[in-house]
Each structure stands twice: as structure tokens, then as C-alpha cells.
């Protein structure tokens, strides 16, 4: 659990200024010489859980001058008196600040905000200073820069990070809840979470009980507890289709000079060219070339080509019957294919990936009643 850092450097700067009393244009020096002292708030940031924390004030006094009282003023009224603790310091308890609700311009209470205060200090020389500060009240739990979307095949490995920060209050427990879509109900994730902050991978939770699918949204909520106090933060993760990375439009011809296709490159080549995957087959069809890693299935009427992505195409392929050739093709016929390839990643490393794609027959061209070519549009990805 993070703790708020006290701005000691500011105190040191002010102290240094007070020590340099010969500088005529130093405002702090003038206050020290003319009034006898100055106060600064050391602890100016707390969490919603810090309802009873002692906040420190640093006091600076001139030679022969001492502090007699330190009062905390809010909206012109004294709300408490600080306790002098020696070594030119004083403390006051955060419980005097208010009820930790912060109305916005519309009167709606917000969880975070700040309390403007004045530190009224009375010195032994009879002078009084009033130094204005504010105490910021922040969330006790917050989210890290978590992803906002993922695909189904990456969902299990998504990592959700959270931070826990208080000034002095302890945190008893942190829980994670999950729900499917906005109209779902939150359920406990089953994850064991640290009260110091950290992260959780979804495969460490019971997220599979939600039966999520593409275009669903996973809502999640982290909640921290401190005694009877609770603080929560939530966000969401959209499950998007896994888009195809490649698309090509080609024409496969009966002509031996352009009757082969390389699915990876989209290259049309002459009969016998190496590294091609399919070739034209008379009268109107294609066949897989020996040595190719490509395989096909015929899509059935339930396959949604308009909304197809890599994962839905993979599922349809695995449910189909593999074929090595197809003939009597017509405009609108749809096939699904699988192709294993070696590709180079961004670091120049060669990897073997399995691509899944959708392959649609377009215009079929005939001359004197004989089919001479047909168009193909296809897309694939891994």
C-alpha cells in the first residue's frame, strides 16, 4: 500500500528563507521579522479512509519568539486547535475537517475534493499570522492504465492493475467483482488480492462463469475496505472481434500463365511456380497444390461472412469437412481456409503462424460458353 509523501522540501525552502533575515525583499523574512513567525502545512494529502489521522504543521519563529497557540480555521470559523508537540511542530486530527463529501456545482456529492483551511498562529510577542492551505482528499483505491479492449483468445491473459494509497489508515481487504454487460449483476471474482495494490490476471478469476463472447463487455470493480469504510473503483473491458490482417482481390484464370495463387502474398503465377497454394481446375474450380499447407472447408449457410473475424472463421473451419478441391463454382460461393506460414515479426525473428481466412468467389467470366476465369476476394489473419 502506498503512503502519501510529505512535502519536506517545501518546509526546508521556507526554513532557509527564514534563516536569511538580511534579505530585504524576501516576504518570508519580512513576516518573520515583523510578525515573529510563520506556519506551513506538511501533510496536505490524505485518502478517503484517513478520517482520523494526525496531520503535521511546521512552525518557524524569530529569535526570542515562541508559539503560544495554533488554531485551524475553516470558512472563517475555528474548527479545532492544533497540539504543540515540540521542535516547532504541531498536529491536528483530520476528523475536524468535515464529512468527506464534496458537492459539485450541481450539488451532487463527489468522493474526492479538498478542504481549504487557515492556520492561525498566535506568538509570544502578541502577533498573529493566518496562513492558508488546503488538504486534498483522494481515492484510497485507483486503477492502473488497464486495457479497454481485448479479443476472446487474449481475454484469459488480460491483467488488471490497481493501486492502494492512504496517509495512515490501514486497509483490511481488497476484492474484485465481475459482471457481463451493463445489465448484468456483479459476482465475486474469487481472486485473492493484496491490500498493498498489485494486479490480477483474469485466468486467476472465475470470469469463465460469465460465458462471455465477442461484442460483450466485461465490467469489473475493485473495492477496498477499512473498518466500516469502503472505497470502490470500476471500469470495463470490451471484447472485440479479432480482425483479419490481410485482404486480397485476385482473378484465377484458366490460362496457364496465371492459373496459380499464393495465399500469403496474393500473387497470381504461372502453372508450376513454386510456393503457390491453389490452381485453377476446369471447368470452374480450384484445387490445392501438392506441398501446400493450405486446406479448405465449404462454408454452410449459417456462416456470417459479413461479421466474420479470425476466431469465428477458425471455429467454422474446425466444424467443417476438409476438402482439397472444389468445382462448379458460382458467384457468392464461400470457403474457409487454414494456412500455416512462416512470418517475420517486428524484431526480425521468424515465427510459424496458423492463419484462418474466408474466401469468396466473385464474378465468373465465360467466353463462348466456356468459363475462363473467376474472381476471388479473401481475407485472413492469425
TrEMBL record:
Keywords of this entry: Signal
Top-rank lineage group of the source organism: Bacteria
Protein name: Uncharacterized protein
Organism of derivation: Salegentibacter echinorum
Signal peptide from the UniProt entry: 1-19
